[in-house]
Amino acid sequence: MLITTAMGREVEVTGDYSIDQNWDQIPSADHERWDRLYARQSKILKNRACPEFLEGLHALELSSGGIPNYEELSDRLEKRTGWRIVAVPDLVPDPVFFEHLANRRFPAASFIRDEAQLDYIEEPDAFHDIFGHVPLIANPVFADFLAQFGKVGVKAVDLGALQQHARLYWFTVEFGLIRRNGDLKIYGAGIASSKGESIYSLEDDFPRRPDYDLMTVLRTPYWNDDIQDKYFVADSFQSLFETLSGDLMPLYKEAMRLGDLAHTDPRSKLAETA
Ligand SMILES: [Fe+2]
Q1: Fewer Cβ within 10 Å of end Cβ, the chain: N or C?
Q2: Residues catalogued as catalytic
Q3: Among 156, 154, 200, 148, which Cα is nearest to 172's?
């Protein structure tokens, strides 16, 4: 079928939205931009990302130069955790996304941001999806957590609890922090792929950093177009994974019944103090 992406491109996709990465046709300027982003971000994350992220970055050879060939990268990833990467043109519909994750396939954008968006891009590109997400998928416990998230997602869609489930993704996979020997470290891809947020999330006094609690996360709204005002902190990937065991739908129903927790808009808060 033919779809129009958020960036206004028309793309032919299959039922699961996968496309050919067409790695051979990627312009050298795009590869060069990846290299610059990689060099900048890996330096920032050296003492800020959790060890599992840094280990995955190294093990998957993401620094070998240029935008990775998704097929070759998938072969390396599959040997470690059974996951593969599928190229997609853009964001995919939630039910399709959950189905991919449940089957250990990570949908990754096939395009990379342009020069004007080097520091910030709203929609996920190849740098966010591959550099930000894939290193941790090389970790067996996190890989299991992400697959379980997909399986729960399929049920959450049926229950009408998409909003609650999206919050779980947002506050863990995208913007999660983790405690390591008394320090906070980054594991969320939205943080790890952003120059500004890698520093802000750990070092700024403004955001709150509550302990991860599944029910609280399900009831907490988030901002997808601004800096975050809170980051949930997990104790370990194992404990995170364990919160997704068993039938979660009664808990999701309860979260919907209780409703959203009160929250502060970070923009109004910043405006007050300006
Ligand atoms: Fe993402």
Answers
A1: C
A2: 128, 133, 174, 193
A3: 148
Tell me, what's the pLDDT at 29?
Answer: 96
Longest CA–CA span in the chain (Å) reads: 52
CA of 32 to the centre of ligand 1 (A): 22
pLDDT tens column, 94-153 = 999 999 999 999 999 999 999 988 888 888 999 999 999 999 999 999 999 999 999 999
The CA 227 to ligand 1 mean position distance, Å, reads 15
Which tens digits make up the pLDDT trace of 213-246?
999 999 999 987 778 899 999 999 999 999 999 9
Alpha carbon of 189 to ligand 1 centroid (Å): 6
What's residue 17's pLDDT? 87
